[in-house]
Specification:
The structure is a homodimer of 349-residue chains. By secondary structure, chain A is an alpha/beta fold. Chain A is 21% helix and 27% strand. Chain A has 2 domains: 162 residues, Alpha-Beta Complex (Quinone Oxidoreductase, Chain A, domain 1), CATH 3.90.180; 149 residues, NAD(P)-binding Rossmann-like Domain (Rossmann fold). In chain A, helix 1 packs across helix 2.
Chain lengths: 349, 349
C-alpha cells in the first residue's frame, strides 16, 4: 500500500537574467522572481542535492565578453534563467553518495534561496567552521585557490624574489601580494586609484604601489620600483602594462596570466610589441584556470587556514543582505569602488 | 739544477674576425691568419688545457643581431680575434683536474689548429666513440641537447599529441620532429623551400610539411594540418607565424621558444596580435637556453645513443675540409642551401 507523503512547498525567491550580457553587468540586467519549491528531491533526481543557499559570491568573471571564454565551466547569464555563481550552501537532502543532510558545502550554485544541484563535480565540503563561513566565497574559495595556484604552482616563487602584481587590489591580486610577502618577496602592485594604492601599502603590506592612471610611461614606473627587474609578474591587465613588464623581466622570470582585463571589451586586442624579449631572458608566460588545480584544495587549506587563524592575512568583506540587494551588489564590484570581497547574504545558517 | 726543456713551436693556422658583425656572416668578414704555438702549457696556466681541434661546428647562432643577446656565454666575432664556437678536440696537455692527455672533448673552442682553453666549464668528455666524432658538434652536441631540452623538458610531450615545428629544416627542428615521431606524436613542419618540405616528409618522416613562402594565410595553413589544434609548437620564427599558431593552440598547449629568427634583423619587432588567446586555452609559452640544462647531458645520451645506434634518427652532415674552407662553410649555412649540419674538419684524430 503506497504511502503518500505530503511535501511542504515553500516560496523560493530568485534572481534571473533578462538576457545574455556583454561587458559588465548592471542591476537592470537582472530581475527578482519568485517560484515555489518542494523541499524534497524528486525520485528521478539521482546524484542530486537539495540545498539551502547561505552566501552568494560576486566575482569579476560574472560578466560578458566579446570573445566567449570557450572553456568556461558554466554560464552566469542565460535569458530568464537563474544567475549561476559560486556560493556557500547547506545540504537539506542528498542523493549523492559524497554528501549528506547537514553538510556545508561551497561550489557552483544559483542565485535563489533553495536549489536542486546536479553538477556536483566541483563541490567542496567545509570541514573548518572556526573561520567565517562567508570566507568560502573568497579567501578559502575559488578566488583564494586562484591566488594560491597563481603564486605557488605557476609562479614557483623563491624567497627574496621581486614580484609585480597588476590589478593588485582585486580579490586575487590582494592575496597573491600577501602570500608573496609571507614568503619573503619584494612586492609592488598597480591599481586604479590613490585610495587603492594607499590600502595596498598600508593594509596589505606591499613594499610599493602605484596608480597606473597617473603614469605616462609604464616602463619608467616599473624601472622605478624594480631596478633589478621582475622575477614574477602576476598579469591581470594585458596591453600596455604587459608590454612594459616584458622588457623588465629578469632572467628566467615568470609571467603568471590570470587575465587581461584591458583586452576583453575591445574588438581587436592591442598588439604586444615586446614578446621577443622573452628570448633574451628565458621567460615563461603561463595562463591557467583554477579548475585544473582543484585537486590541490587540501594542500591549499593547510597553507591558508593557519595564516587566517594567526591573523597573517588581511581580508575585507562587504555584505549585501538578501537576494533583493544581489543585483546592485553584483553591479557594484565592476564600478571599482567596493572596499572588499562582495558577498550576498541569504541566511547565516 | 734547473733542467731546460726545449719545447717544439709549431705553426697554428687561425680564422679571425675582421670586425664585429651585424646580421649573417659572410666569408669576407673573416680572414686566415697564422701564428706559432708552443705545444706545452705555460707554467702560469692553471686549470687550462692545451688541445688539438678536430671538428668545428657552424651554427645559426654565429651571427650578429641588432639586439645583443645579453646572456650569451661567448662572442663569436671580436675584431682581430680568433672565431669562437663549438667543436670537438683532443687534449694534448691538461692542468685541469677533470681532464687528461688523450681525452676527447666537445665544447666551446676556437677556430684554429691548437688552442689553449681556460673556459672549461661547459666541456663534455666524449666516452662513446662508436659513433662518428663529428656528431658531437650536432646530434650529440649543443644542437642535439637543445632539441632534447626543447622537446622533453619544455614541451612535456605525451604520446599522440599534435606537434608543429617552424623552421623545421634547421638542425634543432629536424631533431625535434624526429623525437616527436619516435614518441608517437603527429608532426608537421614549415620550411622555406619545396626541396626542404620534401625532405622533411620523405627523409625525416614528418606527417606533413609546408612551404611558408607559398602560404598567403598561415592561419588557414595551420588549420589544414591541425583540424583539432596544436599541443606543442616549437617556435623558431616569431612574427606572423607565432600569431597564426597562437590562435590554433589546444587547451593547455605549450609554445617552446628556441628563437624568433624573423625578428632579429628588424629595428622594431613585429607586434603580436593574438597573445590574449593564451587565456582561453591556458597556454604556456616558454623560452629557454640550453646552458641551463647541461646537467641533463648524461640523460640525453641515454636517450640519443640507442636511437643513433639503432638507426632511428636521420642525420646529414656536410664537411668542409680544412680551416681555409671554414669562412665559406660558415657563410653557407645562412644562405639556406646546405643539406645538413655543416662541419669544418681540421683533423680526424
Amino acid at each position: 500500500m503506497a504511502e503518500t507523503k505530503v511535501v511542504e512547498k515553500v516560496k523560493n525567491k530568485q534572481v534571473k537574467a533578462k538576457d545574455y550580457i556583454t561587458g559588465n553587468p548592471k542591476e537592470t540586467d537582472m530581475y527578482l522572481s519568485s517560484s515555489t519549491i518542494s523541499l524534497q528531491l524528486p525520485p528521478e533526481a539521482s546524484n542530486a542535492v537539495l540545498v539551502k543557499n547561505l552566501y552568494l559570491s560576486c566575482d569579476p568573471y560574472m560578466r560578458g565578453s566579446k570573445k566567449p571564454l570557450k572553456d568556461r565551466v558554466f554560464d552566469t547569464f542565460v535569458p530568464d534563467s537563474v544567475i549561476v555563481g559560486y556560493g556557500v550552501f547547506k545540504v537539506l537532502e542528498s542523493k549523492h553518495p559524497d554528501f549528506k543532510t547537514g553538510d556545508l558545502l561551497w561550489g557552483v550554485t544559483k542565485w535563489e534561496e533553495y536549489s536542486i544541484l546536479t553538477n556536483t563535480e566541483n563541490f567542496f565540503k567545509i570541514d573548518h567552521t572556526d573561520v567565517p563561513l562567508s570566507y568560502y566565497t573568497g579567501l578559502l574559495g575559488m578566488p583564494g585557490m586562484s591566488a594560491y595556484v597563481a603564486f605557488y604552482e605557476i609562479g614557483a616563487p623563491k624567497k627574496g624574489e621581486y614580484v609585480f602584481i597588476s590589478s593588485a587590489f582585486g580579490a586575487i591580486g590582494q592575496l597573491v601580494g600577501q602570500l608573496a610577502k609571507l614568503m619573503g618577496c619584494y612586492v609592488v602592485g598597480s591599481a586604479g586609484s590613490k585610495e587603492k594604492v594607499e590600502i595596498l601599502k598600508n593594509k596589505f603590506g606591499f613594499d610599493g604601489a602605484f596608480n597606473y592612471k597617473e603614469e605616462h610611461d609604464l616602463d619608467a614606473a616599473l624601472k622605478r620600483y624594480f631596478a633589478e627587474g621582475i622575477d614574477i609578474y602576476f598579469e591581470n591587465v594585458g596591453g600596455k602594462m604587459l608590454d612594459a613588464a616584458l622588457v623588465n623581466m629578469r632572467r628566467r622570470g615568470r609571467i603568471v596570466v590570470a587575465g587581461m582585463i584591458s583586452q576583453y571589451d575591445i574588438s581587436e586586442p592591442e598588439p604586444i610589441k615586446n614578446l621577443v624579449s622573452i628570448i633574451y631572458k628565458q621567460v615563461r608566460i603561463e595562463a591557467f584556470t583554477v579548475f585544473d588545480y582543484y585537486h590541490l584544495y587540501p594542500k591549499f587549506l593547510e597553507t591558508m587556514l593557519p595564516y587566517i587563524r594567526e591573523g597573517k592575512v588581511s581580508y575585507v568583506e562587504a555584505f549585501a543582505e538578501g537576494l533583493d540587494n544581489g543585483p546592485a551588489a553584483l553591479e557594484a564590484i565592476f564600478t571599482g569602488r567596493n572596499p572588499g570581497k562582495q558577498v550576498v547574504v541569504l541566511s547565516h545558517e
